[in-house]
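#onboarding

Welcome to the new folks! Below is a worked example of what a typical request in this channel looks like: someone posts a single protein sequence, and someone else replies with the predicted structure as tokens. Don't worry about understanding the tokens yet, we'll cover that in week two.

Example request:
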Amino acid sequence: MDGAAAIQGDLPSALTKSIDVPLEAGDSQGTSVHRLSALTLIRDRLSEVLSTIAGPVVTIGGDCGVEVGAVGHVSDRDFALVWFDAHPDLNTPESSPSNAFHGMVLRTILGDGPAPLVPSTPVNPDRVILVGVRASDAAEEEFATAAGIRSLRVDELTPESLVAAVEASGAASVYLHIDLDVLDPADMTQVGFPEPFGLRAEVLIASIKALLTRFPLVGAGITEFAPASMLDAADDMPTVLRIIGALATETAPDAQVAIGI
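Example response:
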């Protein structure tokens, strides 16, 4: 929440809409998923706001859970889901070692997650490209391999390789999920779960620009900015704003930004 608020403070107020987050933690509703009731409420509130906005929206978390509502909002579009993340988020409630939903988000978007959050139109695995993943659980790796999900390791990513991967999916447009922990800690320090040997910011931004030169953007999410304080947030804000700038200027300079969890 603090990370989303820090980003909002540096964006034009006329282009942002805030999603109220319940102050209570929420409960698991008889499942193994922590705070499921709060997650469902946030998804519903985000979906309601997104339904009032035309054109691509940049949704800013909070954690990756905001993507359930944001990706669901464009489920009727022909798009590839490019998942920039140090973690694949492919656990199920049964396989998750932590019971934290942010490790199940992509699996839920694919149709296999806690029932209240599974979208009515799941994304097909052949439309997903994992980028920069370098910390996976065994169950996630097994699923990704069995489902045939495309992936680009950190050392494989170039603007050209990413464009080629999306072209191979057959999609006509893209949704970009950007968990900031995909970046190397040298370029992004204020995240909840940093992983070494990540993408450099210049490579990420160049890849976004190349992709959006080739494909229309249907939406994007920026998640997991977790500064310890507003003073600490200032260190990483230039990089965050460059990413938002690449998303907006390459497509629509008046693209909306929704401030989520």
